[in-house]
Amino acid sequence: MALTDNFGRSIHDLRISITDRCNYKCVYCRTGNSGAAYAELPFKDYLRMARILVGLGITKLRLTGGEPLLRKGIIEFIRDLSKLRTLGGQKPEIALTTNGHLLAEIAQPLKDAGLDRVTISMDAVDAERFARITRVPNGYESVLAGVRASSKAGLDPVKINCVLLRGFNEDQIVNFGKFSREENVVVRFIEFMPLEEDRVWTPEIVVTLDEILLRMAEFMPLEEIPHERSETARRYRFADGVGEIGIIAPVSHPFCGHCSRIRITSDGKLRTCLFSVWDHDLHELMRRGANDQKLEEFILNVVQKKEERHHIGEPGFIPASRTMVHIGG
């Protein structure tokens, strides 16, 4: 029986953070002063968790960080994940979210190991602006090389995630539209959420879905295209059919009612929502010697506690117990 929560939502997407470390210090994410805060587990422990969860109905696996390409052994881990089989007897879909800095040389080996898709975080298509956001000099060319290597390797569709902050990079919207068309990638804009380390979020900083559409229409008209019910992004293509834009709008257009995700943090905690105020310690059970049946029972019980929705912007909103980099993108 596939995993289902207390609100009848099918839970089939699992995100596994394999490290809390990152080689970037993006201004909307890290303060710049703090590094990794939580432990990394051996890959065999993540593999066991994934195996059990795939056996309970998970069909999509996404590896995140921090920056997952900092982990030595990631190619072998993906090869092991690709040997798992879903309840329907298929290989699970395996994806990776990365900042792309180390991707160019490893894209083809990742594909050969069983990786299906890659999403690259990229918040400007201007080298100087990119350096200001990431606080890493000369990173833009490395990431661009990673984008192109991923396309060449067949990690399609290559997706580019851009977090927009008012007064900082919203002037990049049209440039990203052009980038999508020129590089044949899917660009996805993400509304800024209150998950950064220094907790500076306010509603005024958010560049909303409606504003993004208006700005892009000044460049070229967009038309909405169908998307899966559980997809987080609203999808659009340009009127001439060249280039695709996605908009993930958890603040202005929440999609909690269709959420299909759960997450495992780098230190082995199960989280049912980005904005959870609780972690559920799956790894501690493993450390104590729990068998697979006990782990399954624990997971089923936790999934039943999945939150109905987040409460961003509402009176009494309680921030998540971890910031984004310590949860996994």
Structure commentary:
This protein has 329 residues and is α/β, with parallel strands linked by helices. It has a single domain (13-326), classed as Aldolase class I (TIM Barrel, Alpha-Beta Barrel), CATH 3.20.20. The chain contains 9 helices and 12 strands. It has helices at 43-55, 74-81, 107-113, 127-134, 140-153, 173-183, 209-217, 282-287, 292-303; strands at residues 13-17, 60-64, 93-98, 117-121, 159-164, 186-191, 222-225, 233-238, 244-248, 261-264, 269-271, 280-281. It has a 12-stranded mixed beta sheet. α2 (74-81) links the parallel β2 and β3 (93-98). α1 (43-55) runs parallel beside α2 and α2 (74-81) runs parallel beside α3 (107-113). The mean pLDDT is 89.
How are the elements arranged and paired?
Elements (H helix, E strand, L loop, with lengths): L12 E5 L25 H13 L4 E5 L9 H8 L11 E6 L8 H7 L3 E5 L5 H8 L5 H14 L5 E6 L8 H11 L2 E6 L17 H9 L4 E4 L7 E6 L5 E5 L12 E4 L4 E3 L8 E2 H6 L4 H12 L26
Parallel strand pairs: 1-2, 1-10, 2-3, 3-4, 4-5, 5-6, 6-9
Antiparallel strand pairs: 7-8, 8-9, 10-11, 11-12
Helix pairs in contact: 1-2, 2-3
What radius of gyration results from the CA coordinates? 19 Å
Strand percentage, roughly? 15-25%
What do we call the CATH topology? TIM Barrel
What characterizes the major β-sheet? 12 strands, mixed
Number of domains: 1
Q: Which regions contain 5 or more consecutive residues with pLDDT less than 50?
A: none
- Straight-line distance between termini: 28 Å
Number of strands: 12
Count the DSSP helices.
9
Order of helices and strands: EHEHEHEHHEHEHEEEEEEHH
**Overall residue-averaged pLDDT value:** 89
CATH hierarchy: architecture: Alpha-Beta Barrel
Q: What coarse outline follows from CA principal-axis ratios?
A: globular
CATH class: Alpha Beta
CATH homologous superfamily descriptor: Aldolase class I
Strand order of the largest sheet: 7-8-9-6-5-4-3-2-1-10-11-12
Q: Which percent range fits the helix content?
A: 25-40%
Structural class based on helices, strands and sheet pairing: alpha/beta
